[in-house]
């Protein structure tokens, strides 16, 4: 599975932004998709995950209620809708895939896309 994240940019605090992660290559079937982020000088951290069907999602506490992960399997694409952004959300955002629902550790994911930069100004 090849993954490509896009949609990052520079926004002001309080704004919204939607990231996309497009999958190609092997069949997308059965894969859990996760979003991670890495801020400057910090370790990469889990943000959100979504089941293959899209019917189940899970989030880091820091983004719960502000971020929403969805997927469109017909388009082989997963989205991360981010709202009420704050400077603390500034990071490079990555999407990743595996077949183990509930995974939050980066070493649990098998495939990774390149990151997309999100910068939130105050």
Overall outline? globular
Order of helices and strands: EEEEEEEEEEE
Tell me what portion of residues adopts beta-strand conformation. Answer: over 45%
Q: How many whole angstroms does the radius of gyration measure?
A: 13 Å
Distance between the termini: 37 Å
The percent of residues in helical segments reads under 10%
How many strands in all?
A: 11
Main pleated-sheet profile: 7 strands, mixed
Provide a count of the helices.
0
Structural class, judged by helices and strands?
Answer: mainly beta
Explain the overall architecture:
The protein has strands spanning 2-6, 9-12, 17-24, 32-38, 45-50, 57-59, 67-72, 77-82, 91-98, 111-112, 116-121. It is mostly beta strands. The strands form 2 sheets. Strands 2, 4, 5, 6, 9, 10 and 11 form a 7-stranded mixed beta sheet that branches. A 4-stranded antiparallel beta sheet has the order 1-3-8-7, with no helix packed on it. The chain has no helices and 11 strands. It is 0% helix and 50% strand. Strand 7 (67-72) and strand 8 form a beta hairpin.
In short:
With 122 residues, this protein is mostly beta strands.
What secondary-structure arrangement, pairings included, does this model have?
Blueprint (H helix, E strand, L loop, with lengths): L1 E5 L2 E4 L4 E8 L7 E7 L6 E6 L6 E3 L7 E6 L4 E6 L8 E8 L12 E2 L3 E6 L1
Parallel strand pairs: 2-11
Antiparallel strand pairs: 1-3, 3-8, 4-5, 4-9, 5-6, 7-8, 9-10, 9-11
